[in-house]
Every structure is written in C-alpha cells, then in structure tokens.
Amino acid sequence: MPHIPIPPKPGAQPQTLAQFGNIGQQIKDIAEQQARMVLDEWLKQYPLLFESKINKLKIHNISKLIGMKYDDRLTITGVIEEDKWYEFRLNNNNMNSEYIILLHRRQTDSGHYIMEYDRKTLWVTKDEIDTPEKIIICMNTI
User: Which of 4, 45, 69, 91 gets the most CB atoms within 10 Å of its CB?
Assistant: First the structure.
C-alpha cells in the first residue's frame, strides 16, 4: 500500500493534485477503489432500494380511465404513465383547477403500492387496483 503523506500545517498554502505528483494520483486511485467497494457492498445488502422490474406495477389499458367519473364534480381527464408513477389528472369543466393523484409503481417491502394526493397517502395492494373501477374507489378513499 502506498505511503499517505502528512497533511500540511495550518497556514500553509494548499497544494493541488498536480503538486503532489504520483503520490496524489495514488491517493485518488485508492479513494475511488474504496468508494466502489463500499458501493458494491451496499448494493448487495440493500438490493430492494433500487428499481426492480419484478416489483414494478404495470396497469394494462390504463387509458380506459380517461373520461370516467371520479365523483359528481370531477372527471379523469388524463393519465400519464411515467417510469416511477402513474399520474391521474382530474378536472371539472366549470372550474379552472386541476387535481393530480399519483400512484407509485414501485412496490414497498410490505407488498403495497402508494397512492398520494395533497400530502395524503393510501397504501394499496395490487388486488385493490387491478381494474379501473377499483382504482377510482381507491382515489375516492384518499
């Protein structure tokens, strides 16, 4: 292992990597190698923290929700399928405001999916959102 230089005394001029020469490059290489090792170990310990195709929610024919009534006032006017969530846009032609409900596509450790609206959350299972009608029921619950 290479020798690590002693840091400069207080008040000394800071040195750049080029001024350290070969020793500075070795320190940088060792730091990068250790960072990669730590990241690799972390990825092994916490694999569920990253996107998994297996746990990613896919709703077929999601566009069937467009035009469905949310309640007496609101209709679903748009559905956007993003990589990490579904975005449901609700609107009323008499009002100029639009409401957005998100349904996250990544499954939690407990096997639920999270639906959110206006800082409120609802944890749902796949069985609770497997039809457009059930999705509307969950939206009304939140």
Answer: 91
Tokens of 2: 């290479």
Mean pLDDT of the chain: 78
Closest CA to 57 of 138, 133, 129: 129
Both tokens assigned to 68: 């469905």
Spatial strand order in the sheet of 98-104: 75-81, 85-91, 98-104, 113-117, 120-124
> Position 102: which residue type?
L
- Cβ contacts of 129-135, under 8 Å, gap ≥ 24: 129/57, 129/59, 129/103, 130/59, 132/61, 132/64, 132/65, 132/68, 135/59, 135/65, 135/88, 135/103
